[in-house]
Prior knowledge:
The complex is a heterodimer.
Chain A: E1 3-4, H1 13-27, H2 34-46, H3 52-63, H4 67-81, E2 86-87, H5 93-101, H6 111-123, H7 129-152, H8 161-179, E3 187-189, E4 194-195, H9 197-204, E5 216-218, E6 225-231, H10 237-252, E7 258-262, E8 266-268, H11 270-274, H12 278-288, H13 298-309, E9 317-322, H14 331-344, E10 347-352, H15 365-370, E11 376-379, H16 383-395
Parallel strand pairs in A: 1-2, 6-7, 6-9, 9-10, 10-11
Antiparallel strand pairs in A: 3-5, 4-5, 7-8
Helix pairs in contact in A: 1-2, 2-3, 3-4, 8-10, 8-16, 13-14
Chain B: H1 4-13, H2 20-32, E1 36-39, H3 46-57, E2 61-65, H4 72-75, E3 77-79, H5 81-91, H6 95-98, E4 104-106, H7 108-113, E5 120-124, H8 131-143, E6 145-148, E7 152-155, E8 161-166, H9 174-179, E9 181-184, H10 190-200, H11 206-221, H12 230-242, H13 252-258, H14 266-271, H15 274-284
Helix pairs in contact in B: 1-2, 10-11, 11-15
Amino acid sequence: xxxxxxxxxxxxxxxxxxxxxxxxxxxxxxxxxxxxxxxxxxxxxxxxxxxxxxxxxxxxxxxxxxxxxxxxxxxxxxxxxxxxxxxxxxxxxxxxxxxxxxxxxxxxxxxxxxxxxxxxxxxxxxxxxxxxxxxxxxxxxxxxxxxxxxxxxxxxxxxxxxxxxxxxxxxxxxxxxxxxxxxxxxxxxxxxxxxxxxxxxxxxxxxxxxxxxxxxxxxxxxxxxxxxxxxxxxxxxxxxxxxxxxxxxxxxxxxxxxxxxxxxxxxxxxxxxxxxxxxxxxxxxxxxxxxxxxxxxxxxxxxxxxxxxxxxxxxxxxxxxxxxxxxxxxxxxxxxxxxxxxxxxxxxxxxxxxxxxxxxxxxxxxxxxxxxxxxxxxxxxxxxxxxxxxxxxxxx
Amino acid sequence: xxxxxxxxxxxxxxxxxxxxxxxxxxxxxxxxxxxxxxxxxxxxxxxxxxxxxxxxxxxxxxxxxxxxxxxxxxxxxxxxxxxxxxxxxxxxxxxxxxxxxxxxxxxxxxxxxxxxxxxxxxxxxxxxxxxxxxxxxxxxxxxxxxxxxxxxxxxxxxxxxxxxxxxxxxxxxxxxxxxxxxxxxxxxxxxxxxxxxxxxxxxxxxxxxxxxxxxxxxxxxxxxxxxxxxxxxxxxxxxxxxxxxxxxxxxxxxxxxxxxxxxxxxxxxxxxxxxxxxxxxxxxx
Lengths: 396, 285
């Protein structure tokens, strides 16, 4: 339900109400400044502003930021101009969002902060024009500290939308680090940054020594391709949503990345994860998700991958395995499968959610079998651990 | 005061059926002199809008197709190096004269702002271009001027009507979105699509037109990789008309054979076997 500001009693004329409307949109997440309020008046001057339908269309074209904002605008418009929204109770709407993002079971851990927050929202004046700005500011600070907190929490507890989005963003950054590889050599190019003097000179002989044709050269990009193999078996259930978001982020960086899920079988989920429509993507994934949360056969999955999809691997491929290494199949198959992938792929990285735990030792048979074939075995139990991978990946 | 209905009617006269919100966005873009960003699925006629607008405004259409790696020398201007070199050798031209308009190669953006009459500038698929280029575009879209170090700043003589289109390949920056008006163009509903088909193919049998639109609308609700757009729908209509089909139910083979104009991937063609199409047609008849 969108938040609504009541018309302040002192609001006079269209300009004041317009400013109020912009503030109302801003409170609901739009990024609008004072210049936009003036634009709004200019836009209304171009149409018959007394007709609500026209005013709505005009302001929609002006203020909707993107496709989502476009759909949400009508509700926000009604909420403000027709008082159809829900009344805000004391504090700003962002506040409520954070509350709902936090599972109830954290209450005990965040006791102190909770108290501080109460005090602040009480101190917030009721819907006064100037007070609102302050309330927003303090909310901003609260979110910042909370997100710090999120980053250190074990991924098992992160199931809400915000942290999934953050996992996706972290992964997208990682993917960029991995992808941006430049060759040290120079190659001739139509539009490079440098002139290719040798070729220019050679070609100038035909023109009587005039360097008439210019040739360029550039450092070609040699992007790494990413292949993600994510474990969605029973022991990984608690992590699988975050890892799915993480895989989705990794996929977003370039179009050649591939993603697979495995439990007892291996499934290619690249098209589903690439779907921009997240709702439809979730639908497609859930169709494929039979067997989510069952047993795992890591070795079998790796062998199937090498058999069926081995041809997508090359020396510039980074294979990322997301798994805890608990496996019901034969452990030696894990080693064999990885060895086969190893021969074709550039790098293999194993991200293990258990590895970040205090006294973790790689005793699982599958992990032991895998160890000799890995370039890196890294922890992936918190968002900050995932973010810290950036440095590790840059070195690979 | 001209109104957006006026814009809608004039667009309709060129054969473009614009929805309410799109017509309003275009009307405002022209009235306020702001760029208009259009988003929406492929094949809903985003590029076509610019062409229709150019026709309505009786203006020249200048098009910049964006792609990965598009740079300033392709989009804005470039010095004609060979000509400069020849001029030095042949005529002994002095240095100051070398960097003059004579040796400047105008690319679409510079071309657009140096027109006498306001042109329509279509920046197509802006999300394919790199972020650096998007940043470059900001100066042009807010001030309508281009700075050439050797020549100075060139300001627009007439403000171009700018239309940007995006397909959602990547997210656009907030700075760019802030400068633009926005309209989301979705697939037309049944009535609107029928109107489009009537406007574009007036000679088509009404019953066939209704069948075409119903089947295409139903196909869009299926889980396809590439949903058929308006352009595909028109192609299909042309194909069926060309084969002399007057009623789909009478010519299932022709319908199946012409589906290639609608479904462009192997998976999608597999998803629409003859029985499904027959069922869809059966609903109309």
